[in-house]
Inverse folding.
């Protein structure tokens, strides 16, 4: 039986105007990516915001322009970390249909653990196996060197994702550490509501996936989407933000599970169908 978790109401009367602004902003950032540290710092947020906003009027991600926006965000995330792992010269990266030669940067304030998790999720959604392998090889020490402060759980979560992708044998221990680190009493930096409704659900969902527990995977996915909805409808400002239109972490784990045979018995605009089903496979040179 399929469970439906409808997306919360979102105004689309001025969606075209909003998309035009976001598209122009993202284009300006990408145009300066090679020569501007400020643009590199803004690039992941700018391109991901555009990708999510496109889902306001295209909730299934059925339009090629929406898929292009998601691919671009994925390319930016992986490109920034490729550059961060390099200390000399430049790194050629295909981004938005062009080859960008990103300067080698080493660790930067924007190559932090949160950005790494987002970039890994995007690569999972876009089924970019080579990029996932490259991201899985990013040293956790580099993420710490960003200077950004996070709750300690996130580093265990990074290591769990990396270990699972690379076939390491300590994934269970890292997952336990990540789950323990999301408990309210362990949170020092993240808001408790953000931690419990947004940051924790992908971890328990991944745990169910690794155990092959299909029944409880479905339950965990439904819970994740309901908690996502609760978080993004907590007040008017949140409900009006396009940032809440897609449940990024649960979508990424659901894509992984679907591709390995798990039945995804949940329907929701928070999980755009074309992204979940990889409907645009082979349509773009990524």
């Amino acid at each position: 039986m399929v469970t439906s978790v409808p997306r919360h109401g979102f105004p689309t009367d001025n969606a075209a105007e909003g998309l035009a602004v976001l598209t122009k902003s993202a284009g300006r950032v990408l145009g300066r990516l090679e020569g501007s540290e400020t643009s590199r710092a803004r690039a992941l947020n700018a391109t991901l915001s555009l990708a999510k906003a496109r889902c306001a009027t295209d909730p299934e991600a059925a339009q090629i322009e929406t898929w292009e926006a998601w691919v671009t965000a994925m390319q930016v995330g992986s490109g920034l970390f490729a550059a961060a792992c390099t200390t000399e010269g430049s790194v050629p990266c295909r981004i938005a249909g062009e080859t960008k030669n990103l300067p080698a940067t080493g660790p930067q304030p924007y190559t932090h653990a949160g950005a790494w998790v987002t970039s890994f999720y995007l690569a999972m959604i876009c089924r970019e196996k080579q990029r996932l392998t490259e991201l899985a090889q990013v040293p956790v020490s580099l993420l710490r060197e960003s200077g950004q402060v996070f709750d300690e759980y996130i580093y265990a979560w990074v290591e769990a994702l990396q270990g699972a992708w690379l076939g390491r044998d300590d994934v269970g221990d890292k997952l336990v550490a990540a789950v323990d680190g999301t408990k309210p009493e362990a949170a020092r930096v993240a808001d408790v509501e953000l931690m419990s409704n947004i940051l924790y659900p992908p971890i328990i969902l991944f745990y169910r996936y690794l155990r092959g527990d299909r029944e409880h995977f479905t339950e965990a996915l439904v819970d994740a989407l309901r908690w996502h909805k609760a978080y993004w409808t907590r007040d008017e400002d949140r409900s009006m933000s396009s940032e809440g239109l897609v449940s990024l972490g649960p979508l990424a784990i659901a894509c992984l599970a679907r591709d390995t045979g798990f039945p995804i018995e949940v329907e929701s605009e928070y999980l755009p169908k074309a992204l979940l089903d990889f409907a645009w496979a082979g349509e773009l040179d990524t």
Q: What stands out?
A: DSSP finds 14 helices and four strands in the chain.
